[in-house]
Write a structure and sequence with these properties.
Layout lengths: L1 E10 L5 H18 L2 E6 L3 E9 H12 L4 E12 L8 E6 L5 H11 L11 H11 L15 E5 L19 E8 L4 E9 L7 H5 L4 H22 L5 E5 L2 H6 L3 H11 L7 E6 H4 L3 H13 L3 E7 L5 H7 L4 E4 L1 H4 L6 H16 L3 E4 L5 H10 L3 E2 L8 E2 L6 E5 L1
Parallel strand pairs: 2-5, 8-9, 9-10, 10-11, 11-12, 12-13, 13-14
Antiparallel strand pairs: 1-3, 1-4, 2-3, 6-16, 7-8, 7-15
Helix pairs in contact: 3-4, 6-8
Bound molecules: ligand C2E and manganese (II) ion (2 copies).
Ligand C2E binds next to strand 8, helix 6, strand 10 and strand 11.
InterPro entries: Acylphosphatase-like_dom_sf, BLUF_domain, Cyclic-di-GMP_PDE-like, EAL_dom, EAL_sf
GO molecular function: blue light photoreceptor activity; cyclic-guanylate-specific phosphodiesterase activity; FAD binding
Organism: Siccibacter turicensis
């Protein structure tokens, strides 16, 4: 299948113009052998490349490019499919933007079009190319250090001490995972995650129950979440709990129950954040809105969990404004390498900034993911890079240190 792939990257420090010319010559031969067209733009610091050809050829060429240390911070911008070749014949051409007029580069690319009819100004690939030439997106080309520049050191002082942990008897129903601000080295919140007796996920606990039984268990389990958190000592931090949106709607007096249990454990409502998954809200938005008003009137905050994973996200923000949103781990995974994911994160941040909603990135596993998100302006993170959920205790956080 005919594939068009676009990426951009940063040139490595030790690459000279001479190496660049040799590189283009070699790439031209390799591309030709794969029947791939390559158009490479260079602005003195960044590369932008278009590859077009049979899917297998484009993938093979791109894999080699990804492994090449003459550049770094590769971001895949687009991968699209078309009925016919649009960008000329196999080989490789370099345009050094410092030596060409903007217009002449675009014209040269248009002139190479194999079919003028198909290569219109509305073509996405051509628009990407034009945006790079115009440098209008340059502010979003974030420099991310390679992972080996960082070391994640577990905070020994934060390790749970046997003596000061007085656990409730029996099965530890909840595991705790910190939400952290690595720049200020602060644990800003702790999330309580339900565990089945065998350590499995919350969903196992609900398996086989009727919907009503599920909602009741979901709500009543929170008595233990508060008791465990209080005995572990969460001090000035907020405590995040997960609830099915319908738990708040279908269990009569749900909010009053939460308030009673918060008070019984010497916590305050302002310390508690309820996390709900956006997708589960859709079917009964109106009833849910009513429950949210009750929560907010009692001083409890609301977070939308797994934001961006479902279809309710943006519409939901027009109906209820949460205090926080947590960007789904599927969007976070390899965000430093994906143009679409970067565009989505930046759009979510812009939207949340306009609405003064705090943003957390969840499921962060790689140093590069964290670094890209930090440069993009996110301050709160959750994920195994910093701390995995710990059954019955608040785990120590691994903080990043520059080597
Ligand atoms: P969630 O609140 O979005 O939690 C994220 C899940 O990802 C958690 O699984 C967590 O252990 C896991 N996780 C944390 N860091 C990472 C990471 O860096 N990488 C990856 N791949 N995964 C990570 P868990 O604890 O099994 O929870 C799954 C879901 O179950 C939760 O998603 C939450 O929506 C739900 N849940 C947890 N506790 C409760 C509860 O008390 N009530 C209800 N209704 N749902 C709950
Ligand atoms: Mn959650
Ligand atoms: Mn989540």
């Amino acid at each position: 299948m005919l594939t068009t792939l676009l990426y951009r990257s940063h040139i490595s420090d030790d690459v000279t113009i001479k190496t660049l010319e040799a590189m283009v010559k070699k790439a031209s031969e390799r591309n030709a052998s794969y029947d791939v067209t390559g158009i490479l733009l260079f602005n003195g610091r960044h590369f932008f490349q278009l590859l077009e050809g049979p899917e297998a050829g484009v993938s093979a060429v791109y894999d080699r490019i990804c492994a090449d240390n003459k550049h770094h911070n590769l971001v895949e911008l687009m991968r699209d499919y078309a009925p016919a070749r649009r960008f000329g014949n196999a080989g490789m051409e370099l345009f050094d933007l410092r030596e060409h007029e903007e217009f002449s580069v675009l014209q040269a690319v248009l002139n190479r079009g194999t079919s003028k009819y198909q290569l219109t100004y509305a073509d996405r690939a051509l628009q990407f190319l034009r945006t790079f030439v115009d440098a209008t997106e340059k502010k979003n080309y974030f420099e991310v250090l390679p992972a080996e520049h960082w070391e994640f050191l577990v905070d020994e002082l934060m390790k749970p001490q046997a003596s000061d942990v007085a656990l409730p008897e029996g099965h530890q129903l909840f595991a705790f995972q910190p939400i952290v601000d690595p720049m200020s080295r602060e644990m800003v919140s702790v999330e309580a995650k339900m565990r089945a007796p065998d350590g499995g996920p919350a969903q196992d606990h609900f398996a086989g129950l009727t919907p009503q039984e599920t909602y009741e268990l979901d709500l009543h389990s929170k008595a233990q979440a508060f008791a465990q958190a209080a005995s572990l000592g969460i001090e000035g931090r907020t405590l995040s709990i997960n609830l099915l949106p319908m738990t708040l709607v279908e269990v009569p007096g749900a909010v009053d129950y939460l308030l009673r249990e918060i008070q019984a454990n010497n916590l305050v409502p302002e310390q508690v954040v309820v996390e709900v998954t956006e997708n589960d809200v859709i079917p009964r938005t109106e009833a849910f809105e009513q429950a949210v008003r009750q929560l907010k009137a009692a001083g409890i905050s609301l977070a939308i969990d797994n934001f961006g994973a479902g279809s309710a996200g943006l519409l939901l923000l027009t109906r209820v404004q949460p205090d926080r949103i947590k960007i789904d781990h599927n969007i976070i995974r390899d965000v430093h390498k994906s143009g679409p994911k970067q565009a989505i994160v930046l759009a979510i941040m812009k939207c949340c900034s306009a609405l003064e909603i705090a943003v957390t990135a969840e499921g962060v596993e790689k140093p590069e993911e964290w670094m890209w998100l930090e440069v993009a302006g996110i301050s709160w993170f959750q994920g195994s890079l910093f701390a995995r959920p710990a059954p019955g205790s608040i785990p120590a956080v691994a903080w990043p240190e520059l080597r």
